[in-house]
């Protein structure tokens, strides 16, 4: 075997490895490097501060609130999106034309720009002229300050995220349901299995790879939320909707504290990495592949 034949496989994957290293690996290491410095993004010199940026972050009450907001947002978004999508998939898993139209309608928000969706929901949640307050007013309820009150602002963003993501998750669940062999349902019917028993003992285990996949991508996506916050609330009111990525953006590109923002980025990277590893370790053995 010639040298060219030995190097040929590596030459095939080299472009992808170079692009991945340039746009993914290098930025991570450069972020780690910047987190050790005090730099304003303009000055040509950087001041080495070691781990002081991390100490300042972890002792800052505002950052702890941002972590709390991010955790609440992620838990609610992942749980509601996954749960509601599964219920919709069970309902829509039929060959009828009507259900096909409903599937398309539910999926349509997924292909719409998140900026457009944020602007739309900003109008819908307007306390004076919004459609949502008009609808609940028909039932005798008072007007809600959807985005302008700390008690409802974060929940409002969760509603937008669930509305945006539920269509994609539903179609993935439908694909998972349709991949389950029909003879499994026939065997359950012959055994006179109750619907709840069929669902918990047969359908859920067979859907475990799908659930595993969707929870992972929904969790990572929720930690990276930015557009809806930047357009709808800008982290307010009183920091009640500020999350990690928007916090990094604020300190990096508004306050020009690059080292501080990089340290927050490192913490975000560590949190997502740890959660992903723990999730894989705890639940991967519960995933049933056929």
From TrEMBL:
The keyword Transmembrane applies. Residues 67-279 form the ABC transmembrane type-1 domain. It is a multi-pass membrane protein. One of its GO terms (biological process) is transmembrane transport. Its main location: membrane. The keyword Transmembrane helix applies. One of its GO terms (cellular component) is plasma membrane. It holds the Pfam family BPD_transp_1. The chain crosses the membrane at residues 12-33, 72-92, 104-124, 202-226, 258-280. It is found in: Cell membrane. Keywords: Cell membrane, Membrane, Transmembrane, Transmembrane helix, Transport. InterPro entries: ABC_transporter_permease, MetI-like, MetI-like_sf. PANTHER family: ABC TRANSPORTER PERMEASE PROTEIN, INNER MEMBRANE ABC TRANSPORTER PERMEASE PROTEIN YCJO. Belongs to the binding-protein-dependent transport system permease family. This is ABC transporter permease. The lineage of its organism: Bacteria, Bacillati, Bacillota, Bacilli, Bacillales.
